[in-house]
Amino acid sequence: MSNQEPGGCCGTVSAAPLDADQAVELAAVFKALGDPVRLRLLSMIASREGGEVCVCELTPAFDLAQPTISHHLKLLRQAGLVDCERRGTWVYYWALPATLDRLAGFLRTSVTT
Prior knowledge:
By secondary structure, the protein is an alpha+beta fold. Helix content is about 45%, strand content about 10%. The protein has 5 helices and 3 strands.
């Protein structure tokens, strides 16, 4: 029985055990989300009306230097959770729904109580 879903990396957590490659892939995404700052950044980006937000609007929400915020955003990009585009001097970020959907699908359980 395969844990693989069509178009995704894995099935649900209760479908079958992950293979080593799937575990490595998912662990990288969960690691990126394992920091409270990155989790808040993703939430701010994903919940933004219009689907994107300027880094200039994200930075003031934290008591952190701009390079630190940029580092956290870079890790979210590397994990495939967000993408960005430079427009003039500002960078705009948006969430990548496919990765969020894949995570939500993995965490969904088919077991009912």
